[in-house]
């Protein structure tokens, strides 16, 4: 028989194709990834290739064919184990592996007993490419390379590998802007950059944070503690503990900015229900309240609310520091007998919530699997707000009381689309489709919130609860300044205007309060934790928190943004310039300087706590450093 003349590097090419195709098949057969369009399908198809090209390409540096082939087989074994590890993990947790879970042994408690149920003999198929390589290596000796690799070939090969990576990243960036800087979701990462690259990225993020953590010994806390204690605001004795024992319901209102409140669009009221709350006797409406989030968006707002600490300047702290020790509001309430939970009908791994909520001591996460999404009940990013709030209120009826439930709405999310039946006001007319539709989705969310209050009453949980609702972050970015200026009747949006546009509404609705009013102090999301805990009678004077009680007479009119901008009652600091708040005129920087220094200090303190995982050294009950921490 005439033997086949195999092209150069056949063995390596076989390995590349086998691993690539196997990975794509496994994506489709073993994970439930939602693929919405042809582009996503294509990205999924090419995404294993860049890593596989690099991993096998290293074999081109080996001189001995024997070593080279052995290396190729080893890589295929390792990649198969990684892929299969994810498949088995996914069967149990519906999630991809991230390094910290491998070290969180408690996760594997349940796993141990169910290994038999998770694995099956058919799983050997996941290693079929390894088998092919071993057989080829043994029985098709001609396929093996004996040629020396020339340098040009190697160079061309790696240029190709780099080109494939760029193509992949470029397409992923168009599908999901800021994927790597914001690191939203493990599923999105795998979908866009592939499972192997995802693990590299995960290793990078986790090792960076563990290095910083390893360097801290607790001594850093002394300075942070001094700063916090010297800025602490005294409690308001009239409000402290006034609503002790009530349920706490917190609603994160997606992308809701304050400029729509008590405002109109072409003669249409945008938020009739929320507007009514601004005049309601049981509601405190904070009209100078700002979001303080960074790239972590919704997750940053959750982080700030729970911890009264800033998110990070880069990435999402939910992702990068999901395994830290925190002293969350949920934990405090849990210690005070509350059943704590979050309700959000989305994939549980989005923003790494499933991991982070364990660190925040949240008892239960009602994720997408807790909801029944009927025909026509999903739009845009997922379940519509109206059925979501109705089902959530029904779930609350059966919860042990008191409970702390935190709801995260979703319909008013970019790109702000609705089904025709849900549209209640016309679009705005400007050069920004985003802003034009925004008014409509805000109007829809307002209706959902009205329904929510009614559902709470119907379920009998309204009277014994306090309801806190806040906008999580801006919805209309600076890319829409022209349209925004048109809507606001301005010539343009200056950095001063943009800073003030970061206002989001805050409502604290307390059935029976009777003395509700508009509250005008300059404040931010950092203030939520102390305010809420104090209303419920939980003392926080020893807590490591940066915000202050909004009802405290000592609450200062000063809010710091994550990027260093700030607003006080007199000044606004934005675009590295100081503005007079009353006139919007740029002024000499001097009056802003001491605030700017404090803003820097506060952001540094917050970062120090997170990067050093300092709260592991802190005993919140006594306010002392824990034994073993450096003095
Ligand atoms: C996702 C939702 C939206 O679950 O919270 O996140 P965002 O993009 O607004 O940060
Ligand atoms: Mn959001």
Question: Briefly, what is this?
Answer:
By secondary structure, the protein is of the alpha/beta class. (2R)-2,3-dihydroxypropyl phosphate (GP9) binds at residues 297-298, 344, 346, 350, 408, 410, 413.
Structure commentary:
The structure is a single chain. This protein has 631 residues and is of the alpha/beta class. 45% of the residues lie in helices and 11% in strands. It contains 22 helices and 21 strands. Strands 7-6-10-1-11-12-4-13 form an eight-stranded mixed sheet, with helices on both faces. A hairpin with a 5-residue loop joins strand 15 (558-560) and strand 16. Helix 1 (10-30) runs parallel beside helix 3, helix 11 (221-230) packs across helix 22 and helix 17 runs parallel beside helix 18 (433-458). The longest helix has 29 residues, at 65-93. It is globular.
């Amino acid at each position: 028989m005439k033997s086949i003349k195999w092209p150069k590097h056949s063995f390596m090419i076989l390995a590349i194709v086998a691993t690539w195709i196997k990975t794509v098949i496994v994506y489709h057969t073993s994970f439930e990834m939602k693929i919405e369009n042809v582009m996503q399908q294509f990205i999924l198809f090419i995404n294993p290739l860049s890593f596989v090209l690099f991993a096998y390409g290293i074999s081109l540096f080996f001189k001995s064919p024997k070593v080279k082939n052995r290396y190729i087989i080893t890589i295929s074994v390792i990649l198969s184990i990684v892929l299969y590890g994810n498949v088995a993990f996914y069967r149990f947790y519906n999630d991809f592996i991230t390094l910290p879970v491998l070290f969180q042994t408690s996760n594997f408690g349940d796993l141990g007993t169910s290994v038999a149920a998770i694995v099956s003999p058919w799983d050997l198929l996941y290693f079929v490419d390894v088998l092919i390589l071993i057989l080829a290596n043994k029985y098709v000796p001609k396929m093996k390379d004996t040629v020396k690799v020339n340098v040009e070939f190697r160079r061309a090969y790696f240029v190709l590998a780099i080109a494939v990576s760029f193509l992949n990243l470029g397409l992923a960036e168009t599908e999901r802007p800021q994927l790597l800087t914001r690191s939203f979701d493990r599923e999105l990462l795998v979908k866009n950059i592939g499972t192997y690259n995802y693990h590299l990225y995960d290793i990078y993020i986790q090792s960076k944070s563990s290095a910083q953590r390893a360097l801290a010994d607790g001594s850093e806390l002394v300075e942070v503690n001094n700063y916090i204690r010297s800025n602490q605001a005294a409690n308001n004795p009239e409000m402290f503990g006034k609503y002790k024992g009530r349920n706490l319901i917190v609603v994160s209102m997606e992308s809701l900015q304050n400029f729509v409140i008590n405002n109109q669009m072409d003669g249409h009221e945008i938020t009739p229900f929320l507007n009514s709350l601004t005049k309601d006797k049981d509601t405190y409406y904070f009209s100078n309240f700002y979001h303080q989030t960074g790239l972590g968006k919704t997750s940053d707002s959750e982080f700030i609310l729970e911890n009264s600490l800033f998110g990070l300047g880069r990435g999402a702290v939910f992702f990068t520091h999901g395994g830290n020790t925190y002293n969350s509001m949920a934990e405090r309430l849990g210690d005070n007998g509350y059943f704590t939970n979050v309700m959000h009908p989305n994939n549980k791994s989005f923003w790494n919530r499933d991991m982070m909520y364990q660190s925040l001591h949240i008892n239960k996460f009602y994720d997408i699997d807790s909801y029944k999404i009927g025909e026509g009940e999903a739009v845009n990013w997922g379940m519509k707000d109206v059925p979501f709030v109705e089902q959530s209120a029904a779930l609350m009826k059966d919860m042990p009381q008191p409970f702390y439930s935190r709801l995260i709405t979703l319909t008013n999310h970019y790109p702000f689309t609705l089904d025709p039946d849900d549209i209640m006001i016309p679009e705005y007319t400007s050069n920004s489709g985003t802003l034009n539709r925004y008014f409509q989705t805000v109007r829809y969310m307002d209706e959902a919130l009205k329904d929510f209050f009614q559902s709470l009453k119907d379920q009998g949980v309204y009277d014994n609860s306090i309801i806190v609702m806040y906008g999580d972050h801006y919805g209309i970015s600076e890319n829409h300044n022209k349209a925004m200026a048109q809507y606001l009747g301005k010539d343009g949006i200056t950095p001063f205007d943009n800073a003030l546009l970061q206002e989001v509404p805050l409502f604290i609705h307390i059935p029976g309060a009777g003395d509700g009013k508009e509250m005008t102090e300059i404040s931010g999301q950092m203030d939520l934790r102390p305010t809420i805990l104090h209303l419920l009678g939980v003392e926080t004077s020893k807590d490591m928190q940066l915000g202050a009680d909004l009802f405290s007479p000592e609450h200062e009119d000063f809010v710091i943004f994550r990027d260093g901008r700030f607003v006080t009652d007199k000044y606004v600091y934005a675009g590295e310039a100081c503005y007079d708040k009353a006139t919007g005129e740029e002024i000499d920087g001097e009056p802003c300087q001491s605030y700017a220094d404090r803003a820097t200090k506060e952001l540094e303190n917050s970062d120090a706590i997170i990067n050093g995982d300092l709260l592991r050294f802190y005993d919140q009950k006594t306010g002392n450093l824990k034994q073993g921490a450096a003095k």
